[in-house]
Write a structure and sequence with these properties.
CATH architecture: Alpha-Beta Complex
Number of domains: 1
Structural class: alpha+beta
Helix content: 10-25%
CATH topology: glutathione-dependent formaldehyde- activating enzyme (gfa)
Bound molecules: zinc ion
CATH class: Alpha Beta
Strand order of the largest sheet: 6-7-8-9-4-3-10
Radius of gyration: 15 Å
Strand content: 25-35%
CATH superfamily: glutathione-dependent formaldehyde- activating enzyme (gfa)
Shape: globular
Largest sheet: 7 strands, mixed
Order of helices and strands: EEEHEEEEEEEH
Length: about 150
Amino acid sequence: MSKSYVGGCLCGALRYEFITEPTTVYICHCTECQKVSASAFGVSVRVSAESFNITQGEDKSIETVADSGRTKTGFFCPECGIRIVNKPNSGDLVVIKAGTLDNPNLFRPIAHIWTQSAQSWFPFADGLPKFKKAPEDVKELNKLWSNNILKVNQ
Ligand SMILES: [Zn+2]
Ligand SMILES: [Zn+2]
């Protein structure tokens, strides 16, 4: 039986759920995540696009060009402005902003990406793999995620 994961924006107007396990979870230090989080980095939860649903409220969207040069669409609450998810314009996945989960503690990230634009004070003290940009192979972060789950379950 699959359980569902739920979250929403700051004001509560926009709510979402996803029903499958993430394919990976990572910390992103790209300049867009810094802007969108209004902080030093974003925590990204990748799930398959068909697993994700807005369950309440009307979203607004904005198309942006990522540091990688690829375009993606960001979906946010028109009331409070909080972005909850990005959808890359290629590939069948969405990237949920982990801080919008009702329980942001559920998923432990497995890597840092876009470290070339990380804040210079950030200590990187967790020993996780680091990538200067996004890994060339999109599956790389998924592999790290499933290896990690195997380790945790042993
Ligand atoms: Zn809102
Ligand atoms: Zn990012």
